[in-house]
Amino acid sequence: MIGFFTILVSHTGLVDVASSPLIFDHPQESSVTRPLPPEYVIDPDGSVVLRICFNWSCARRQTITFTPDDMALLKRHIALCPGTSLHDRLQHVRIAIWQMELLAQKYQPLLANDRAINDFEAGLEGRMDCVDSASNTTNYLHILRDIGELAGWTVAPPKVRSLLDLTAVHWTAVMIDTESGRPWSIDSWFRPNGHLPMVMPLPSWIAKKKAWEPPFERLNSTPHSIDELCNTQPRDRAGPGVSSLR
Description:
Blueprint: E1 10-12, E2 17-19, E3 40-42, E4 48-54, E5 60-66, H1 68-78, H2 86-107, H3 130-146, E6 153-161, E7 170-177, E8 183-187, E9 198-201, H4 202-206
Antiparallel strand pairs: 1-2, 2-3, 3-4, 4-5, 6-7, 7-8, 8-9
Helix pairs in contact: 1-2, 2-3
């Protein structure tokens, strides 16, 4: 469990395809002790083939496809938070991860069984622990980067805390603000699949600060519409189909 993997992503400019090293054949999966490297292909038509994992520690892995229409809708939703402030850029990423989790759940409905943290989900198909969440979120971040929806950020390998405490060890996805060089935790584990993830500076996450308490509670708000998340967005642009946030 000690150590981190290196994420490798190739870009084939000739056909406008981005991909990670592909396995996509998952015979007899077994649990892992740290997040998996990303696996995805972005096809020229805009569809995305990717691996998701669940059932705690990636004990089950599945290949799913987001269609061009899925990706177009994703882009429309995250375009509702176009601001360039740090707050708005963080909300842009939160919206994107939320939308990608909902797309994954569309193609694997078992993910709706996931609960916040690991409470009340033992034995449920579709449950996700921090290894699952960090694996999937890191995969989503790489895809967002490759489709041009991660402006101002670079993706870093997942980070662990409390590594030597088996009851408290915890992983998070990580991205780095290219302006300041500051790393940020993007932690989907504290909320069920299909909900907005929690964000905070990585040192605060390592120190076990709570993202829903000051001074981070505004960054991690859960309002009723996308436009309420952003500093610069007028309320009347939320439009149909995006009024319910979780």
